[in-house]
Specification:
Elements lengths: L1 E8 L4 E6 L9 E7 L13 E7 L2 E11 L4
Parallel strand pairs: 3-5
Antiparallel strand pairs: 1-2, 1-4, 2-3, 4-5
Length: 72
């Protein structure tokens, strides 16, 4: 999963991500997600490009969230 962070809500422990299309899983869309590790919330800011792992059928949680350089 790849996308751009639109908002970080540390109180609700969620991030809003404008996610790219994931073939066979979901279309490109902006959604609110929980993250598997709360400490990642302090490392993210709006505009960050991220990668994360997703599990089939789990549309609410992102796992192993990492900030990555933007694609060129």
């Amino acid at each position: 999963f790849r996308g751009k962070v639109e908002r970080v809500d540390a109180k609700a422990k969620t991030i809003v991500v404008n996610g790219e299309k994931v073939d066979g899983w979901m279309s490109a869309m902006t959604m609110s997600y929980q993250v598997d590790k709360a400490d990642v919330l302090g490392k993210l800011k709006p505009g960050d490009q991220i990668t994360a792992k997703v599990h089939d059928g789990d549309f609410k949680m992102l796992y192993d969230v990492q900030v990555v350089p933007p694609r060129k």
